[in-house]
Amino acid sequence: MTKKYIRNIRLSFGISILILLISSIASYFSITKLLESEKWVSHTFQVIDKLDFIVSRMKDAETGQRGFLLTGDKVFLEPYTGSQNEVAAALEAVSGLTIDNSVQQQDIPVLEQMIDQKYTLIKKTIVDKERGIPVTEPILLQGKEIMDGIRVQVIKMEVAENQLLLRRQKELKKFITYTPIFVAIGAILSLLITGFFYNRIQRNLDENSKLEQDLNVKNQTTQKEIEEITKMAKKISEGNYSARIDNSDS
């Protein structure tokens, strides 16, 4: 019984530790994926934010250009001044953030080319204005077409990022749902295993206790028999043979 008792304890601890280990690994994997998904969601928002910034600064530059062309006052060029470097930096950031996205990497050069064309045209109109050369309607329409193309290209890239974001949010939701389930299942299994082996160990203890009681009773009975036999043997050795007969009769 002792070996059986020890075996149950070892088995109980072994299975409980195994369940705990599996549960911990599953939880760790789920939490890791959760953090990874959260990182990608943040990454997608960064890309969209940079693309929005590009359009915003391009619109500011265009607004400054129009103000200068109407008034000739260079104060209107403040939004334009420095915006080209800011837009270039934002575009470079988008390129770095989407380095693993082949579709976006193909779209970036297209956007970059249109941005360069737009700034080249803005600069030309400013120089022409300073020289007293009238800015023609075809030039302004060309600038509008380029800006419309920039908006369309940015929208296309943002749609792609939003679709990617939806997939990542779906994956994030999945891991948010499954992580507590893994933990709960592991906890429940551990409790069930612990309860099962507790009952087995308790049953073994009860069996051992009953066996010990039976052995005590048997030992007491045997001891009494030994005492009776000893007494009888002593009487016989003293020549009292009737004790033997009386005992046999009894």
From TrEMBL:
Keyword ATP-binding in annotation: no
Annotated InterPro entries: CHASE3 (IPR007891)
Keywords, in A-Z order: Membrane, Transmembrane, Transmembrane helix
Keyword Transmembrane: yes
Residue span(s) of domain CHASE3: 38-170
Transmembrane segments: 12-31, 175-198
Protein's recorded name: CHASE3 domain sensor protein
Source organism per UniProt: Pedobacter duraquae
